[in-house]
Amino acid sequence: MDAAERVLVRDGPGAVTVRAVAVEAGVAPMGVYNRFGGKDGLVDALLTRGFIGLQAAVAGSEEADPAQRLLGSGVRYRQYALSHPAHYLAMFDNAIHQDTQADDVMRCARASFDELVGHVQYALVGGLLAAGDPEEIAQQIWSTVHGAVQLEIKGMLLVPDADRAYHALLRTLLAGLRART
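^ that's the sequence the OP posted. Answer follows.
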């Protein structure tokens, strides 16, 4: 897996092949086939690892204040994406896996989302947010932060201070979720 990550980061998603990973790992291609069953299994394992890392970032610490918990998860989401841009883009752009993702990948992606749903439920119970369906609210949050992070990674920010803009976006989003009807 470490060799696959090095290939992804160094050469991009299209370069993640059984042969390239085997060369990087210093093993015969059959070793990669034996371990992962082929390119699809290798890519699924790589994406699964990425979503596990994202889940851990979103989970982060368990701040007692619901606003800080939500804001903190948004900050950690961005930090993970910016510190793992090749992984992040591969996870969401489907650039290295054109077929339907394996159940394990989708389970890990869902677990990342469920961390955010848990933070939203905590905020709802704490009275921070207006009443609503926790999954729908989490989807709104995820869609917003994902869009912002994706634009930043792809170099499409049109403002000079990315940190300031992102933190303002999080505050605006939270204010809107507090006031929604």
